[in-house]
Specification:
There is one protein chain. The protein has helices spanning 3-32, 36-39. The mean pLDDT is 86. It has 40 residues and is an all-alpha fold. GO terms for molecular function: hydrolase activity. This is NUDIX hydrolase N-terminal domain-containing protein.
């Protein structure tokens, strides 16, 4: 694996981590939403 491939893999890992965090925030919002306004 060369330097360019490592850099690309790091970018993908950061993107996947960001997507997981965003999904967890959205899931928490659906779980703890009180009314239809919160759930939209």
């Amino acid at each position: 694996m060369d330097k360019q491939e490592k850099k690309q893999n790091m970018k993908q890992d950061r993107l996947i981590d960001w997507a997981k965090r965003l999904q967890s925030l959205a899931q928490a919002g659906l779980t703890y939403g009180k009314d239809n306004f919160d759930l939209e």
